[in-house]
Amino acid sequence: MPDVSVIDNTAEARYELAENGSVLGFVQYRDRAGARVLVHTEVDQAHEGEGLGSRLIEGALADIRARRLELVPLCPFVRAYLRSHPEQADLVAPRAV
Hints:
It is a single chain. It contains 2 helices and 5 strands, in the order E-E-E-E-H-E-H. By secondary structure, the protein is of the alpha+beta class. It has one domain: Gcn5-related N-acetyltransferase (GNAT) (Aminopeptidase), CATH 3.40.630.30.
């Protein structure tokens, strides 16, 4: 897996997965009343199958946790990630279940 970082690009309302200044993927979000709504995830097709989508969501969830926000997982990829990582379920807003 490339050496990548997850950055909160607040101007674009999305977390970006970046390697050497190039954006390899992103997850768009909206904020509402103490919660961050993850709405859509994309990863560059040239890097599919490298685990970058999971790395992106891990970084986004770590930031959401650090900000003490709740998560509303509208994005199907995020919901699938959460099914595979039940240890993150405490982030999900009760009204989002």
